[in-house]
What we know:
There is one protein chain. The protein has about 350 residues and is an alpha/beta fold. The protein has two domains: about 1-65, Phospho-2-dehydro-3-deoxyheptonate aldolase, domain 1 (Alpha-Beta Plaits); about 85-340, TIM Barrel. The protein has helices spanning about 10-25, 50-55, 110-120, 145-160, 170-180, 190-200, 215-225, 255-260, 270-275, 280-290, 315-335; strands spanning about 1-5, 25-30, 35-40, 60-65, 85, 90, 95-100, 125, 160-165, 180-185, 205-210, 235, 265-270, 295-300, 335-340. The strands form three sheets. An eight-stranded parallel barrel has the order 7-8-9-10-11-12-13-14, surrounded by seven helices. The chain has a four-stranded antiparallel β-sheet with strand order 2-3-1-4, covered by helices on one side. A two-stranded antiparallel ribbon has the order 5-6. The structure holds phosphoenolpyruvate and manganese (II) ion. Phosphoenolpyruvate binds next to loops.
Amino acid sequence: MLVVMKHGASQAEIDAVVEVIEEMGYEARPMPGAQRTAVGLVGNDGRVDSSRIEALAGVAQVIHVTQPYKQVSREWRPENTVVTIAPGVHVGGNEVVLMAGPCSVESEEQILAAARAVRAAGAACLRGGAFKPRSSPYAFQGLGKRGLELLALARQETGLAVVTEAMDESGAELVAEYADCIQIGARNMQNYSLLRFVGGLGKPVLLKRGMAATISDLLLSAEYILAAGNPNVILCERGVRTFDTAARNMFDLTAIPIVQGLSHLPIVADPSHGTGIRDKVTPMARAAVAAGAHGILVEVHPNPERALSDGAQSLYPEQFAQLVQELRAIAAAIGRTLTPAPGTVPVAVG
Ligand code: PEP
Ligand code: MN
């Protein structure tokens, strides 16, 4: 439930609303906005009698959020949320943020080569897994803590912000020490205890859509993180499994505008896992930017043939550089720009 205060409501009136909500046994979350202040009532509000709140001085309206997810919904917050991953890297605004790098961190040489290449091409963030969720227990599982140290080294050299996955609670604490943004992978999208845990770590979270998750499931999972006190969640469309085996997944482009209608949270797109096929990544990345994605997460490897995971869907650095040029033009066509790589000046199009 959301209590919208009148324009110009006094602090004392806002405090009185907070007090009544707390007296009723709920958590009150005041949210100052550009137009007006609202106070969210957090919790299962099915039985709340709103008439007591409606009668308070300074209250304009009480909104019963109709969606099962609450804080994540546009009803709760009409303005877009902009998540700042690092200085100058804002996801959810007018800039399209490019996050690129290998599926897994494999060695110092590999991650530094990848970081240099994606930064030179124009990416603002480096992606790469140190903890890898693999279908087979015998496949490469990632370098663990050493992988995080190598990501930190790459950040130090290139200035790129680091996005990397956490698979469990102990790993998440470690990831939070090294990363700028914690990725929760498709396989863990419904690991509710992990979601609650990362909600308490105070770092931005990139939440990927589960491979059989509806959009509503995705938004409810995000709600866990917000309910734990972390508003900095970036959603990620990465394709879902269907009957069709022509591509690794079915990349759901429609999810981008649908999520943007239902939620104020930013949404980025991952055409690498969305297609699983290198030469399909570029057209789908172009399409995702055209569809309004706030960012693109793409796998790029200095030597894809030798990759320890997801080589078949990893772009060669030259392909990524070409893609960035195209994305810049597509973004410009819809009145947007790309976040410049760290330490560089924005490139004009035209
Ligand atoms: C990844 O980003 O490398 C990854 C494992 O993605 P997903 O969780 O979407 O499969
Ligand atoms: Mn991968």
